[in-house]
Design goal:
With 249 residues, the protein is α+β, with helices and mostly antiparallel strands.
Length: 249
């Protein structure tokens, strides 16, 4: 009986590693694809400017375009490096992270973005809720969730963010409305480089992929679903506590 149990455990570990290897191959194939086009464009523009061919005689115009593409590539590479950091952080000693203050800071950081896009940002954050984890990674994940909601909200839309303790959990809910994700896209939204439909205006396509990696690392259950006339992200932090009151759950 014990041998069967060990064999089953080994089979699960092998299957997990095979799936991880498959995802890694798909990921790096995607990286190659995402880099190929902008690099080719910049090379073509620079060669055209050097040769002073046709429209490329307007060097200032095309230098500005090349610089913009390279800035986007720089941001993309930083996202790739953050994924490597997530892998390295697994197994590290966890620290006490004050999630309540972190979320408030993120909301302040994103208020200018919301204002620029004419999106109303409202919140209700319970104080003094801590969790165990890596502060940098958790901030990255929750920032991606808030930024994604604002970025996919229409003009005059509303993004609401609540973070409250409920029984033995602390629950983060981010809702943006009006908004809707077509059902065909929902199973794929956490995939690297996946963009619903023809929407390529919102970043690298890695935001939700990174969010999932980080929250899965810390065993945080999460989901994104349509609700009424909006889209709702929910994350359930089970290992949270209030240090100020010395009662942990």
């Amino acid at each position: 009986m014990e041998l069967n149990s060990q064999n089953a455990l080994l089979a699960d570990e092998i299957a997990f590693e095979q799936e991880r290897e498959r995802r890694n191959m798909l990921f790096f194939s995607g990286v190659s694809h995402e880099l190929k086009t902008p690099i080719a464009i910049v090379i073509g523009q620079l060669e055209g400017m050097q040769a002073e061919i046709g429209v490329y005689k307007d060097r200032e115009k095309y230098l500005a375009r090349s610089a913009k593409i390279l800035q986007s590539l720089n941001s993309f590479i930083k996202e790739i490096l953050s994924i490597s950091y997530i892998d390295m952080a697994r197994g590290e000693e966890e620290a006490h992270v004050l999630l309540s203050s972190m979320i408030e800071e993120l909301l302040n950081d994103y208020r200018d973005m919301a204002k620029f896009q004419a999106v109303r940002l409202i919140s209700d954050i319970e104080e003094d809720i801590y969790a165990s984890g890596n502060e940098k990674l958790l901030k990255k994940a929750l920032g991606n969730a808030i930024g994604n909601a604002i970025g996919h909200s229409p003009e005059n839309g509303t993004v609401s963010v609540t973070f409250q303790k409920k029984d033995d959990k602390s629950i983060l809910i981010i809702t943006n409305a009006p908004a809707h994700i077509e059902e065909e896209h929902l199973p794929h939204i956490y995939e690297a480089f996946y963009r619903a439909g023809k929407d390529t205006a919102h970043g690298s396509g890695l935001g939700l992929y990174i969010l999932r990696m980080i929250l899965d690392t810390y065993g945080v259950k999460h989901s994104i679903k349509n609700c009424g006339n909006g889209v709702r992200f929910i994350a359930e932090f089970e290992k949270t506590f209030c240090l100020l009151h010395k009662n942990s759950t």
